[in-house]
């Protein structure tokens, strides 16, 4: 793209030179036309060989410049190529996009060895199914829960236990304080 941009820039610069050259040529050509039209009247005032040579040298220089200038067809061909490239550019992947996909592929490759196979999954399903066959019924579960609730009702509550811990802590701290006062 950079090479193409540079080449188009060179072509544009060359075209400006051609236009400038043509702008300088036009008055000269008009003058030559006028000289040719009035030649019969100006026979007495014909140009010298040196003047003609000077004009000829200028024309030769222009021919050299024109030989290196691009035609409209060549410029159109380059513009068509640029348009084709410009149309394709939005559809091309960037390095960042390719890297993102590459990272995803690497993550998938890293995860594959740790995934379960269908055979392992079927074996797990069989083990779970056989384990569920031995599960207690809803009535058996409700009876077990009732037994646990009844057994827990006979046990001291959380508040009672915290109270006991508080009293024991106060007794230990009192004994330590008394021991430091005596000793």
Structure description:
- The chain has 183 residues and is mostly helical.
- It has 7 helices and no strands.
- It has helices at 2-37, 49-67, 72-88, 95-111, 118-133, 138-153, 158-182.
- The longest helix has 36 residues, at 2-37.
Write the layout of secondary structure elements.
Blueprint: H1 2-37, H2 49-67, H3 72-88, H4 95-111, H5 118-133, H6 138-153, H7 158-182
Summarize the structure.
The protein is an all-alpha fold. The protein is 80% helix and 0% strand. The chain is elongated, with a radius of gyration of 51 Å.
Radius of gyration computed on alpha carbons: 51 Å
Number of helices: 7
Strand percent estimate: under 5%
Our count of domains comes out at 2
- Give start-end ranges of low-pLDDT stretches: none
Helix and strand run: HHHHHHH
Q: How would the global form be characterised?
A: elongated
Report the helical percentage: over 70%
Mind describing the biggest β-sheet? none
- How many DSSP-defined strands? 0
N-end to C-end Cα span: 95 Å
Mean pLDDT: 81
* Backbone structural class: mainly alpha
């Amino acid at each position: 793209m950079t090479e193409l941009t540079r080449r188009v820039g060179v072509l544009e610069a060359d075209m400006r030179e051609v236009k400038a050259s043509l702008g300088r040529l036009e008055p000269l050509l008009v003058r030559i036309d006028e000289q040719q039209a009035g030649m019969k009247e100006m026979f007495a005032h014909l140009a010298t060989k040196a003047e003609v040579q000077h004009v000829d040298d200028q024309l030769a220089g222009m021919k050299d410049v024109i030989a290196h200038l691009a035609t409209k067809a060549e410029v159109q061909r380059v513009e068509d190529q640029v348009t084709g490239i410009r149309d394709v550019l939005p559809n091309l992947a960037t390095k960042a996009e390719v890297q993102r996909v590459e990272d995803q592929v690497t993550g998938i490759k890293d995860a594959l060895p740790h995934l379960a196979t269908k055979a392992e999954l079927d074996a797990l399903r069989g083990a779970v199914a056989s384990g569920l066959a031995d599960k207690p019924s809803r009535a058996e579960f409700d009876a077990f829960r009732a037994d646990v609730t009844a057994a827990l009702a006979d046990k001291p509550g959380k508040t009672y236990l915290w109270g006991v811990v508080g009293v024991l802590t106060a007794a230990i701290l009192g004994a330590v304080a008394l021991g430091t006062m005596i000793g």
